[in-house]
């Protein structure tokens, strides 16, 4: 019967198209609390996942398999929770399922997904889908990935090899289980925003001794005929020919460009009982035509005539001085367009960290495998960002140490090379960090300017070649910086580059100066020459404030990164070509 089961009779509950199922995944309460207390809001996008498969195994004797996909979320503690089931597609080894799974995408969290494909036996086709006992169905294979792996693909489609659980321990080469393709779509009906300037002429006076104080209310009409306000202008005092400030209407917000809108002009009264001066009913498309034709539309006023209301046409007119549409591209649009986030790291090797060979040192490498604060920060941030970097080659530096037989360096290559600074993968950073601890002498002071300038050179070189790259520098430090102004100068310059800087403070030092670098309170950094940072590119988190675990630290660090990325792209009018 192919991939469409809508013509199957008999009330087959399991064999049907289903409404999309939504889930946000488990939120980390510590992350949310920290972010809210600091006025930070992370990137949360609704993603709709759809599924198809090819070359599935045929487990039925007289027909083809009847497959269904079951989706699970794998938590960090190892727990696996079922969150969604598709419909059953009858008699198909190349199914495309109709039901879609909606999940909230969290940039700052690694969201692990598990997909299992089952062949639903014929005797269970009349059973409600949610009531099916999976242990009674035959497994066709399973696959896992992260949500980040899907959304970072240019076409947002990821094809996974299906394997059988019992075969996953041994070789699977002799058994072909087929492939599962997962496709992601961001849940937006429109990303266009209409920028409109409205004005009225010859408004009638509603006040006895002065002119009216007009304002506009724009409402959308829903199917039931009810109007729902979506926008309101400011009140203009004593003005019969008002021109209001621009209003911005997201086309998704009003339904569509052809959806009917009611624009009402009121006279403001302090008692809240505003007088209706007049109104018009127009769609966004109509308003655009008024703008292009430089014509006005007469307002009308519903007036009681006998027992019925009639629309009295007024001399007052509504005019559209400006109408333009702009596309507000999302973070995921840029990923689909081939943009990458390139991870860089700089580690504090100053003497205040303590002797690395002693257990009380912040740099102590525990033989049991327990990670120190530096390792937690590297692993936690790197674990998230690695999915957004194609080659996973990361520049890694140290600062505040004396290499063997050399002067104190405030920016040296962590891998010990004098020619190149990159290491391969997160494990490469970890190995280079451990090796450096035994090949340099901890010294001081704590200076940030050198490593920020070095990262800026990397970003600037990439920018000059037209590469689709945005860089993220992680600085991990235990102390108060002694080059505050030099650091400000470096940050002001870097604010014009595709670069964000994450700072993790470890240990018990006073990190007040770090808060100055993080301009969350709206105070932009100023350089020695009086130049102001074009945007905020720093996010600082003291490790002790998020002792509940590295996930909280990572969430707090990365929450602002997509916004910083978008601010850079939009201010330079960089579009995500697809």
Automatic annotation (TrEMBL):
Chaperone is among the record's keywords: no
Membrane topology classification: Lipid-anchor
MF terms (GO), sorted A to Z: calcium-dependent phospholipid binding; metal ion binding
Keywords in alphabetical order: Calcium, Cell membrane, Lipoprotein, Membrane, Metal-binding, Plant defense, Repeat
C2 domain segment(s): 27-160, 176-300
InterPro entries: C2_dom (IPR000008), C2_domain_sf (IPR035892), C2B_Copine (IPR037768), Copine (IPR045052), Copine_C (IPR010734), VWF_A (IPR002035), vWFA_dom_sf (IPR036465)
GO biological process: cellular response to calcium ion; defense response
Coiled coil: none
Location within or outside the cell: Cell membrane
GO cellular component entries: plasma membrane
Gene3D superfamilies reported for this sequence: C2 domain
Major place of residence: membrane
Record has Transmembrane as a keyword: no
UniProt xrefs under PROSITE patterns: C2 (PS50004)
Family according to the record: Belongs to the copine family.
Name by which UniProt lists this protein: C2 domain-containing protein
Lineage of origin: Eukaryota, Viridiplantae, Streptophyta, Embryophyta, Tracheophyta
